[in-house]
Specification:
Blueprint: H1 2-23, H2 25-46, H3 62-73, H4 92-97, H5 114-119, H6 138-149, H7 191-202, H8 213-225, H9 231-239, H10 245-255, H11 257-264, H12 270-292
Helix pairs in contact: 3-6, 8-9, 8-10, 11-12
The chain binds heme C.
Heme C binds near residues 78, 84, 85, 101 and 129.
Length: about 290
Amino acid sequence: MRAETVKTNLVKMLSALRRLIRRNARLLARLLLAGLFACRDASAAELDISKLPPAASRKVDFVKDIQPILSKSCYECHGEKKQEAMLRWDAKEIALKGSEHGPVIVPGKSAQSVMIHLVAGLKGEDNLMPQKGERLSPEQIGLLRAWIDQGADWPESASVKVEDKRQHWGFKAPVRPRVPKVKNAKWVRNPIDNFVLARLDKEGLKPSPEADRATLCRRLSLDLIGLPPTIEEVDAFLADNSANAHEKQVERLLTSPHYGERWGGSGSMRPAMQTQTASRRTSRALSGFTATG
Ligand code: HEC
């Protein structure tokens, strides 16, 4: 009987607790987060800052005084090859933003900067930076401190430009470019020619003379289906005097099964298929040759 009451009371309490949590989920989450951040600050507060070597009293210069320390002692693990804690000391933007755990430099306040705590060994041997090799000397730490106290100036020119992956062209919506103006407008047949000619103009070059039609036919064929045209195809193209003979030839090649073979095959299959179709083509071309010759 008694055990029964304890049990019902427990169940009541639990469901009340559950209701409380459900109603205040957002508040609780906020408190939890605040607690996490407080940990980072609290650990800083417990550190014995009086153990830090004093900041250098002169004006420091990032390139002359600071970068050599970073490059000698830190780049190995926080540079181009490795980015421990997602931190890079060769890239201003990243270093000033901080590590995966948060900011590591507080400009103007070296004694509150995680970077200084770590190089001075304030957080114990396990967290000492650099994690390998020679420790930084008190003078070097003094320079780092002075640099931070003086505002952590870092000239753009002394930083690696880290590519923002979202700037890759693959993520950008295509935009129709402005068609460039050209001097020799007569040479232009369609707007793509404007781009070609504008670039040639820029390089101080003149367009090559137009190729003869048999050469054009061969280039088209090699380009689109990877095979030379048959003699009949060249003859048919030469005999076609219409203004859009070139476009028609392109259409024909695009509908050719060889077009799919050339562009659809995976890199490893393509050569094999090309050899096959090429030999078929060669025999066709040869029979054409005997027939006409
Ligand atoms: C041999 C490798 C190595 C070298 C060299 C090195 N580090 Fe690190 N560093 C690490 C590793 C590993 C971590 C990640 C530690 C972690 O997340 O617990 C780290 C993390 C850090 C962090 C982030 C700590 C945090 O809590 O946000 C700072 C700041 C840092 N290093 C500063 C430096 C500085 C300054 C130098 C040069 C004086 C340096 N490190 C050289 C390995 C190295």
